[in-house]
């Protein structure tokens, strides 16, 4: 069978090499080992089920959809999702971090933020997406850009953390 990275990314929302890296990081976690006579699904399958489930939202996915896709029960989807989530959360510090302010990664991130947003955000390292404020009607200028996933016209609130880390009102 021919490899199709595009289809892999479409379903699991990660490249195959990233999938393999995550798998390597969580494979030895105790959650995947038990003394039961009923063996667990292979860790790679559990990770694929989790990524498929976590990578879609709203009408695009349901427990039943994932179960049908994976050929397992809804309860097994929940169990796989929980097991992988526990393994990932235990590895939080290995997966989530901020680049050093003097690093090339930080500079590339700042350049990207400046090119896509506004120059004032250039030296920040974190923006937290917050609540949306629904608008009464579609704005006259660039109206479609205010249309959100909940089928409303809205503004998104964000908290921005410029160096040093502190919340701006």
Per DSSP E runs of 2 or more residues, the count of β-strands stands at 2
| Secondary-structure class | mainly alpha
Alpha-carbon distance between the two ends: 55 Å
Using only C-alpha atoms, the radius of gyration works out to 20 Å
What shape does the CA trace take? globular
Q: Going across the biggest sheet, name each strand in turn.
A: 1-2
SSE succession: HHHHHHHEE
What can be said about the biggest beta sheet? 2 strands, antiparallel
* Count of helix runs: 7
Helix content: 40-55%
Calculate the mean pLDDT score and round it.
83
**Poorly predicted parts:** none
Relative strand content: 5-15%
Present the secondary structure layout.
Blueprint: H1 5-12, H2 16-26, H3 43-54, H4 63-70, H5 74-90, H6 92-95, H7 104-116, E1 126-134, E2 154-161
Antiparallel strand pairs: 1-2
Helix pairs in contact: 3-4, 3-5, 4-5
Describe the 3D structure:
The chain is mainly alpha-helical. It has helices at 5-12, 16-26, 43-54, 63-70, 74-90, 92-95, 104-116, and strands spanning 126-134, 154-161. The protein has a two-stranded antiparallel ribbon with strand order 1-2. The longest helix is centred in the middle third of the chain and has 17 residues, at 74-90.
